[in-house]
Prior knowledge:
Layout lengths: L19 E6 L11 E16 L7 H10 L3 E11 L5 H19 L6 E8 L6 H13 L6 H7 L8 E9 L2 E10 L12 E6 L5 H13 L5 E2 L9 E6 L13 H23 L7 E9 L2 H13 L1 H8 L5 H9 L11 E4 L2 E5 L2 E2 L2 H10 L4 E7 L5 E8 L3 H8 L4
Parallel strand pairs: 3-4, 7-9, 8-15, 10-14
Antiparallel strand pairs: 1-2, 2-3, 2-9, 5-6, 6-7, 10-15, 11-12, 11-14, 12-13
Amino acid sequence: MTKKTPTTSLRCGVTAPQGFLAAGIHCGIKKTGILDLALVVSEHSGPIAGVFTRNQVIAAPVIVDRLHLRKGIGRAILVNSGNANACTGAKGLAAAQQTATLLAQRMGVPQHHIFIGSTGVIGRILPVSKIVAGIPPLLARLSDRGGLDAARAIMTTDLRPKSIALQDTIGGRLITIGGMAKGSGMIHPNMATMLGYFTTDVSITAHALQQALTLAVNESFNCISVDGDTSTNDTVLCLANGRAKNPTIKEGTAAFRRFLSLLTEACQSLALAICRDGEGVTKVVKIEVTGATTVATARQVAHTIATSNLVKTALFGEDANWGRVMAAIGRAGVPITPSKISVLFGGIPMVQRGVGLGLSAERKIAKVFRQKEFPITVGLGQGRHRAHIWTTDLSFDYVRINASYRS
C-alpha cells in the first residue's frame, strides 16, 4: 500500500481531495483580524458521516447536525470560533438553524445539506448578524487553496492549525482524505472539546462511510485525554463526493478495509496533534494496556492511568514515580491480580510480577521521563485483549491558561 502526503503545499487539509473548496475569514466574533469563520464546500453533494459528543449538555450546532445527518447527504460545513453557542436555549437553537438556512439559500441547496459547528466560550448568544454578514465574503473567497485559512479560523486556545492529507490507491484510483481539527483543552474520550472535519473524493455508500468514521474515531479521538473533561460541542464529520471515480466502496470489502486504514491514520494524526498542542503540554505519552480479559477492562485501566493527576504531574515534573501508575491500576475498578502485573516505561521494564525492579531500573526510566514522547505499557497477565490511550502531562501553564480563559 502506498500512502503519501500531497506534494503541493498550496492544496492542503480539507481542500486536498478533488472537488473541495474552503475559506476562512474574520467576521467579528473574535478580536480584530483574527480568523473566526470557516467554510468547507464540496462541488456537489455527497454522503456525510458524523460522530458527536456524549455529554448530555449539547450545544445548538450539534442538535442541528444530528438532525441533518438523518438524511446522510452533505454539501457544506460552516464553523465559527469564539462562541460555542451552548447553554443558550431556544435562542441559540434558532441562531444555529438560521445560519444553516441562510447558507443553504445562498448556495441553492436543501437546508439538510448544510452542517454547522461552533467552538469557544459557553453561554453567550451567537452573534448571528456577524455570521450572516460574513457568509457572502466567505463564499467569494472559496478556493482549493483555502484549507489552511479554514483550519486557522476554527482555532480557540490552539497554538497552531492542525491539518492532514493522505492518499492511497483503491480500486485502481488514487483517492485522497483531507482533514482539519481544533482542540487544546477539555480533551477526553467520547469525545473532547474538539472539532474534526474530513473530506474525501472517494466513492462510498453513506452507511459504509458512517461505519468507517465511527471505527476510526474510536481508535483516535476517543483515545486521547488532556484533562479529563468532555465538552458540549464535540463533532467529527466526514464528507465524500466520489470525484475519484473508484468503484463504490461498501462495508465488508477489501476496499472498505483499505479506506478505513487510511481514515484511521488521518484521524490518529490529528488526534496526536491535539495532544501535542494541549494547553501547557510538555509530554505526550501513549498508555497501552495488554493482557486484559476484555477490551473494556483494558480501556478502563488505560483511562484511569491517563486521567490520574498524580501520574500527569509526575510526567510534568519528570519524576519517575512508577508507584503512581501502580496505584492507578489498582483503583481502576476492575478485577486484577497484582502478582501478574508488569509495567514498562519506554520499553524498559520497571515492574515484574507486581514488584519493582529496584534502583537500577528506576535510574533507567528516569531518562525516559525526560523525553517529550514515550509509551507506558501495562501487562495485566489475565487475557489477550488490549487498549490504548494517549495522555499528556499537567503543567503550571494549564492552570494559568484555564484560570483566565474568559478574560
